[in-house]
């Protein structure tokens, strides 16, 4: 199978399988799978195959910086959502992403370890700010019919754009664009419209928890790619991503004290 065919077929197939499994088997499976870099990993793999392992390893540093910008958007939304309408809160969150990316990648350029040190407390703060309230609604809305096609199309378009433009963008900017939460934000808007602010913040909280897995993936890719077999490097990186989400799953499954 050619790389173009893989991008068009493998990416939406992976997204469909994971989304279906999460809906069928509930929050435990869904939470674990949400921590996997479902669009980020294919982008990184295609960059390694098309541009070389060194390019993909360098792009992983940009992705860690980009993850900081993503977390900035979650923090902005957590602050704005209870105070503003749907559109205003999302626009300000996306503005925080752009500003965060410009500062981290364009101005500060912190490198892998400083960017990781920035990302970790920011992600933990986003999770803390989005903790469910005592009156969280129990009912769940059915996703709209466009939900699944939108996920598949968004993931595929992002993979195609970043991998195709990578030679012009360079490893740093290609990496920054890879973790864009192109799937999460439509879901956040839908949850807000159907279930209110609390439901939207639940989606943001799950995305922030999953970001720990995405961060682990990129750190491992940068450290391993070019030093070990690429298949082994990506296998270890994906395993580390899944393992990083397990503490959140365990905490989520513990019965609450009365």
What's a quick, concise take on this entry?
The protein is mostly helical and about 260 residues long.
Binned, the helix content reads over 70%
**Helix and strand pattern:** HHHHHHHHHH
> How many whole angstroms does the radius of gyration measure?
18 Å
SS-derived structural category = mainly alpha
Q: Termini distance?
A: 55 Å
Number of helices: 10
Instruction: Extract low-pLDDT stretches.
Output: 134-139
The tally of strands reads: 0
Major sheet: size, sense and barrel closure? none
Mass-distribution shape: globular
State which percent range the strand residues make up. Answer: under 5%
Give the overall average pLDDT. Answer: 80
Could you characterize what this model shows?
Helix content is 81%, strand content 0%. The chain has helices spanning 3-25, 27-34, 40-51, 53-80, 86-108, 111-129, 147-177, 184-195, 197-224, 230-253. Mean pLDDT is 80; it is low at 134-139. With 258 residues, it is mostly helical. The longest helix is centred in the middle third of the chain and has 31 residues, at 147-177. Helix 1 (3-25) packs across helix 7 (147-177) and helix 3 packs across helix 7. The protein contains 10 helices and no strands.
Short descriptors:
258 residues; 81% helix
Walk me through the topology:
Blueprint: H1 3-25, H2 27-34, H3 40-51, H4 53-80, H5 86-108, H6 111-129, H7 147-177, H8 184-195, H9 197-224, H10 230-253
């Amino acid at each position: 199978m050619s790389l173009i065919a893989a991008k068009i077929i493998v990416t939406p197939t992976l997204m469909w399988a994971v989304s279906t499994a999460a809906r069928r088997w509930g929050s435990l499976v869904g939470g674990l799978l949400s921590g996997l870099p479902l669009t980020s990993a294919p982008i990184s793999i295609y960059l390694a195959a098309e541009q070389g392992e060194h390019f993909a390893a360098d792009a992983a540093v940009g992705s860690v910086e980009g993850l900081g910008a993503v977390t900035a958007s979650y923090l902005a939304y957590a602050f704005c959502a209870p105070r503003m309408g749907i559109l205003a809160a999302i626009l300000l969150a996306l503005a925080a992403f752009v500003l965060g990316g410009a500062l981290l990648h364009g101005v500060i350029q912190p490198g892998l370890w400083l960017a990781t040190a920035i990302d970790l407390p920011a992600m933990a703060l986003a999770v803390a700010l989005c903790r469910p309230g005592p009156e969280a609604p129990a009912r769940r809305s059915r996703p709209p019919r466009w939900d699944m096609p939108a996920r598949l199309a968004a993931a595929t378009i992002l993979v195609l754009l970043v991998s195709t433009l990578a030679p012009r963008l360079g490893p740093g900017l290609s990496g920054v664009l890879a973790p864009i939460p192109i799937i999460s934000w439509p879901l956040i808007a839908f949850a807000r419209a159907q279930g209110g602010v609390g439901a939207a913040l639940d989606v943001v909280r799950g995305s922030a928890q999953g970001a720990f897995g995405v961060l682990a993936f990129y750190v491992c890719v940068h450290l391993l790619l070019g030093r070990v077999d690429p298949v082994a490097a990506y296998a270890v990186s994906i395993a580390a991503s899944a393992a990083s989400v397990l503490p959140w799953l365990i905490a989520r499954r513990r019965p609450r004290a009365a």
